[in-house]
Amino acid sequence: MKKLVMTTALSCLLASAVAMAEVKQGGSMIVTYKDDVSTLDPAIGYDWQNWSMIKSLFNGLMDYKPGTTELVPDLAESYTISDDGKTYTFKLKDGVKFHNGREVTATDVKYSIERTVNPETQSPGAGFFGSLEGFDAFNSGQSKGLDSIKVLDDQTVSFQLARPDATFLHVLAINFSFVVPQEEVEKWGADFGKHPVGTGAFKLDEWKLGQNLTFVRNQDYNKPGLPYLDEIRFEVGQEPIVALLRLEKGEVDIAGDGIPPAKFLQIKNNPQYKSLIIAGDQLHTGYITMNVKMKPFDNVKVRQAANMAINKRRTAQIINGRATPANQPLPPAMPGYSTSYEGYPYDPEGAKKLLAEAGLPDGFTTELYVANTDPQPRIAQAIQQDLSKIGIKADIKALAQANVIAAGGDAQQAPMIWSGGMAWIADFPDPSNFYGPILGCGGAVDGGWNWAWYCNESLDERAAIADAMVAEDQQAARMKEWESIYIDVMADAPWVPVFNERRYTIRSERLGGGESLFVDPVHIPVNYENVWAKDVQ
């Protein structure tokens, strides 16, 4: 046995040495997108297209280990959390420089987060900092800053929270926390997003609006050896079909918009592309909401019946199997996901019995709202067919996405909503992010995202207690509590979780890097700083 262990270890070392030998410094890559980039300002950018671009240009105090959801220090060298879970103190790395050559200090950290919370910035991420002491006063314009962020010296910054918040380290890893130089923001004003200056692996070299953006290697990057590439060129205005054809010809390295649905099966089943297509789980769930404030969905048995009526496997086939059936709000890749919970079975006859017990043996008529962009109406039709088999006659209301969102935020308008195209993708890999905005009482407000209008105050209290479990030795218990919370949510059945989409990326043969880099759960869609080109001379 001892000999076997030594042999295995030696094999791992040899494999690691071979892998490192393949890594090459230099070269470039081309990425295509249909639409132009809206902004590269980390306080403003909030879409999947610019997410990984911004991560390539900027850094925060925390980040995630490449290809994983494991938190690690980034601009921080180390950090401590007080025993009461309310004070976080960070020591910065020495010598980290902005792209303009100036060294980063703790004052830059304070400025950057205050800038995000400042109502004048109009950042969509301001609310993530709600646990900071003094947040409400500053975000509402009643005070001029956050005294709870203290610069202790040039390399040390502390944060005072109003309450323990186990998600705070995650918040410090999202783009809204990324550090920016005040002088550059003031120089460019509202145009800073077109002239970004950060500390990241790459820096913006050129941006021709409507045509392309060029990132070049940051020679002063604080992580030795990274990035591997010298240049990334993002070409915009490229139709996905055209981008795919160019990739086949070797003119493009990554089709940023993915494989076009009409071509998916053809490409996926072609042996030529087998090694080039990479699939990975997303922190995503597509679901049907049922408005618990509207009859008959105020009856839990009706909601449970709807859960048992949907053939989730058939629904996933509508998007060419690019999803797996869901049985709970959390996706499998999310910490806190219950591997033992089986959910509601597909059982139309059992669903009919529940409707009869609810006093609706002949079913009822309702409305199912859906975004009018393909394939969402087709998915809604499949849901409609399944519901009809148990006597629920759902009229489909296909509207522009903005109108569906507005209907969901009105307690009296939408009995049922298929969330496709608007379904929840986590802002950060923590189970609380799937609860508060879309299942908690705080989201069940006019204009909110809790379209089921579900409010269980006892679960809210348990969620608050779970998020106050900050200590490292409490995290296993915290995840167990979140697992229990979501199982109890499913007992109330405000949703029908339908499927968890998988992300498929197609890359050229000339790119190297572990598969997880191309379907990174956080650096969506690609972790650019760790990818390399194989054909560097």
TrEMBL record:
Keywords on record: Signal, Transport
Pfam families, A to Z: SBP_bac_5
Signal peptide: 1-21
Sample GO molecular function, one term: peptide transmembrane transporter activity
UniProt cross-references to InterPro entries, sorted A to Z: Casein_CS, Peptide/Ni-bd, SBP_5, SBP_5_CS, SBP_5_dom
Family of this protein: Belongs to the bacterial solute-binding protein 5 family.
Protein name: Heme-binding protein A
Name of the gene encoding the protein in the UniProt record: hbpA_4
